[in-house]
Amino acid sequence: MADTVKRSELVALVDMDGTLCDYQGAMLRDLERLRSPGEPALTSDFEDSPWMRARQELIRGQPGWWARLERRQQGFDVLEELRALEFELHVLTKGPANSTNAWAEKLQWCQAHVPDARVTVTMDKGLVYGKVLVDDWPEYIHRWLTWRPRGLVIVPAQPWNAGFSHPNALRYDGTNLAEVRARLRAVRDAALAANVG
Description:
The chain is an alpha/beta fold.
């Protein structure tokens, strides 16, 4: 395939937090350690308050926190499909403005877990080119699709994207990998056909 279509025409952008790694699980675990005895137990949709944001910043600022995040299987399922179809892999992750160690540690994580991918740490995912985006966060998906109206988004299932719907997006819940594969193959085949013509 490499002879008939340039790899740069088959760029797949893959999110890190919530897609390739379990950011939410690690954050919940560490917030639970900071919970006082009188506070209610946390759930995955913990409240967004100033004191909760301060705790999250404290956690994210710990040296090595980002580099130690655990892999998330759904993200790696899609990653393997992209590899099999010979997409050029790019990890596309948002860099927090108030946690500069995150930028370096996200790169370290990618080098350890996805060494065949290029890495872009950005503050605006909508500006980055790709044929495919794999991301769990609806706000980032909308922003990217604004500039890529023909792009395809694979959405690894998370509680916060349960109601998300878009004609160019397919939610992957771990049971519909064949459908994901078919949609990715269609993108690859369209790029091949455009290159031939």
